[in-house]
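step 3/5: co-fold with zinc ion
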Amino acid sequence: MNEKKFRYAIYIVLAILILLFYTKDIDLFGQNFYENIKQIDNPDAIMVLVNKNYQLNNNYVPNDLEIISTSYAYENKSLRKEAKEAFEQLSEDAKNLGYKIVATSAYRDYDYQKKLFEEYTNEKGEAYALECSAKPGHSEHQTGLAVDVAGSNDDYDEFESSIEFPWLKENAHLYGFILRYPKGKEHITGFKYEPWHYRYVGMEVATIIYNENLTLEEYYNKYL
Ligand SMILES: [Zn+2]
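step 4/5: write tokens
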């Protein structure tokens, strides 16, 4: 190989490296989020799948919402009855072990989510809104089965560094909850890692998901 060809080869390798660097966060084989959107036909099912490809109707409101006791949540936070009872038990058991796990956000209706997404978009642009929020109808919080929590450091955004996080990560499934948006599964869930967001699916399914290290999407693919 002469010097000219050698230099040419180096340029090509460099170009490939630069290309790889800029595309490493783009999942070329992932799903097309917010494309081919399907309407959800079983919104009341405990196992309902809501994500960027499955959308809830704008007037869907669960009919068994109950307010979580303020011993375990901020004021006026509600979940569906089954999820609410499970969460209160979880939070109570955590308290008895010296932990503090409090719901900071739970059920959110369609209009609230719409406003939230619009605010993010107006303040920081749509790319940012898409990164840290869901479009209306695509938020799990509208099911009344999802909850965001804070630990004893009182900041849901810092939940991962709280003393409660390691405990909840290993025990949430015993109460029927799963860590819904795990690290490294962003290309499957469509959402960034959210150590504070837990979804109620019931103990049996939560235990399978925990033991097999699945996401809800992967559970659907494998078992349903
Ligand atoms: Zn959440």
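step 5/5: annotate
The chain has a mean pLDDT of 93.
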